[in-house]
Amino acid sequence: MLYPLQFVRVGAQIMQTKNLSLPLLASNNAALQLIGAMCFGGLILFAVGFLSMDAAHNAAHDTRHAFAFPCH
Amino acid sequence: MLFQRIILASLLVGLLAGGLLSAVQHSQVTSIILEAETYEGGEEPEPVVVEEHQHAAADAHHSHEHEHGGAEAGGHHHGDDAWAPEDGVERTLYTLLANVLAGIGFSALMLACMYSARLSGKGGAGWGAGLLWGLAGYGVFFVAPALGLPPEIPGMQAAALENRQLWWIATAFVTAVGFALLAFAPGWKKLGGLPLLIIPHLVGAPHTNAPEFAASNPQALQALESLHHQFITAATLTNALFWVIVGLACAWFLRRWSSQDAALQAR
C-alpha cells in the first residue's frame, strides 16, 4: 500500500518527466478523498434519516424526529 | 491518508456527540415522543396522564387496550408486519445507535468541508472557528429545514413524505452553498450567498391542507399542541448542543492533524 508521502514522491518523479506541477496532482488526490469522505457521510445520513424501509424507519424513528428529519 | 483520517475522526466525534445527544434526549425529547404516540391514529382518546385512573378502573375496555398495546409491542410503526425495536431498553439502544450514526455522518461531512477550507488556505481551526462551523452545521441541517418543516411529533399529518424529504435535502444543500459563499467568496461575491439562504423559503416547504393532528377529541388536541410546542423547544436546544459539540470536536481534530503534518515536514 502506498502511504501519502510515498505517493507524493512517486507522483513527483512522474511529474518531473512529464513537466507537470506537483500541487496539481496532490490536490486532485486530496479532492477525491474529500469527496469520498462526503459520500461516506451522506450515505450514512441517508440510511439513518431518509431510507423508507420499514425496519430502518422503526429503528431510527426517535432519531429522525429528534433531528427533525421528515418522518411519517 | 486523508480519507482514513476523516473517517476515523468522524467515528470518534459521532460517538461523542451522538452519545451526549442521546443522554440529553432521553430525558428531554423521548418522553414527548412516547406521550404523543399514545394519541397516534386517534385510537386512544384518553390522555396518558389520566391512565393511572384508568388502571384503577381496570374495565374491559382497558384490558382490550392492553392487548392492542401487546400487538404493537414495538411501539410505533407503519407496516403491520414490520420489525420494530421493543419499547424500553431495546428502543433506547437503537435510538442511541442511530444518533451515533447520524453523528458520524454529520461529522464526516463537517470534517471534509473544514479540511477543504483549510486546503484552500481559508478557515481557522481554533475553538472560535470550531464554534462557527458548528453553528453553520446547525443552520444548514436544523434551522433552515426546520423553518419550513418544524420538528414534528408522532401523529401529526403532513404532506407526502417524499416531497418533504426532497425539500429538506435541497434546502440543506442550498443553505450550505449560501453559507460557503458568505464565508469564503472574495469581496462582493459574498452577497451571492444571501439569495441562496432565502430561495428555499420563497419556494416553500410542502404542506398539507389537512388539520395538524388526526385526533378529534378536543382534550387530546390541546395536549398534542402543548406537546408539540415542548418538542420544538427541546429539539431546538438539543440540536444546538449537538452541533456545538460536533464543531468543537472537529476543530480539535483539524488542529491535531496540522501539528502532526508540521512535525512530519520538519523531519
Explain what this protein looks like in three dimensions.
The complex is a heterodimer of chains A (72) and B (267). With 72 residues, chain A is mostly helical. Chain A has helices at residues 4-18, 22-49, 54-59, 61-66. Chain B is an all-alpha fold and 267 residues long. Chain B has a domain at 2-45 and 87-157 and 210-266. In chain B, 72% of the residues lie in helices and 0% in strands. Chain B has helices spanning 2-28, 30-37, 51-57, 60-71, 89-119, 127-148, 161-184, 193-203, 218-266. At the A-B interface, α2, α3 and α4 of A face α1, α5, α6, α7 and α9 of B.
**Strand tally of chain B:** 0
Q: Greatest contact pair? A: A-B, 41 and 63 residues
> Could you estimate the helical fraction of the residues of chain A in percent?
over 70%
Runs of chain A in which pLDDT lies below 50 for 5 or more consecutive residues are 14-22
Helix count of chain B equals 9
Count of runs of 4 or more consecutive helical residues of chain A: 4
Helix content of chain B: over 70%
Along the chain, the helix and strand elements of chain A come as HHHH
Low-confidence spans of chain B: pLDDT under 50, at least 5 residues? Answer: 43-77
What proportion of the residues of chain B form beta strands (DSSP E)?
Answer: under 5%
List the helices and strands and how they pair.
The complex is a heterodimer of chains A (72) and B (267).
Chain A: H1 4-18, H2 22-49, H3 54-59, H4 61-66
Chain B: H1 2-28, H2 30-37, H3 51-57, H4 60-71, H5 89-119, H6 127-148, H7 161-184, H8 193-203, H9 218-266
Helix pairs in contact in B: 1-5, 1-9, 2-9, 5-9, 6-7, 6-9, 7-8
